[in-house]
Design goal:
The chain has 124 residues and is mostly helical. The chain has 5 helices and no strands. α1 runs antiparallel to α2, α2 packs across α3 and α3 runs antiparallel to α5. The relative contact order is 0.12.
Length: 124
């Protein structure tokens, strides 16, 4: 992502400084663009990594059900986990907690209900 932001920054800077022949290095367009792109592409990368992690959880659930020979014990275990109340974030890091619908994009684990539904809909 960093490399891509540098390439985009170079392109923007070159576009902004077309007529200048005395340029001896990157200009302000390069620096501003790379900083903005580093931040934006960092968020995109985090969303992609979280998506792969959620898919891995679905595959792990299916693999566990296959190892047991039936899916009902895994469904029961997930249902028991779903009944637990998640702990509250400590006050010192509460500001870093992502909640709401946007939080689902950054979540590394799918909701328990979705995991149970995926197991129940799988063929076995």
């Amino acid at each position: 992502m960093v490399f891509l932001s540098r390439v985009i920054g170079y392109g923007v800077d070159s576009f902004l400084r077309k007529g200048e022949s005395s340029s001896s290095g990157p200009g302000i367009g390069y620096y501003v663009t790379t900083i903005v792109m580093d931040i934006l592409l960092g968020f995109v990368a985090a969303i992609i990594v979280a998506w792969f992690s959620r898919q891995r959880e679905f595959r792990a659930d299916a693999g566990a059900a296959q190892l047991m020979g039936r899916k009902q014990p895994m469904v029961n275990a997930l249902a028991r986990l779903g009944g637990m109340v998640p702990g509250e974030l400590p006050k010192s890091i509460q500001a870093m907690g992502i909640t709401g619908n946007i939080g689902k994009l950054f979540s590394s684990h799918p909701p328990i209900e979705e995991r149970i539904a995926a197991l129940q809909n799988s063929a076995q």
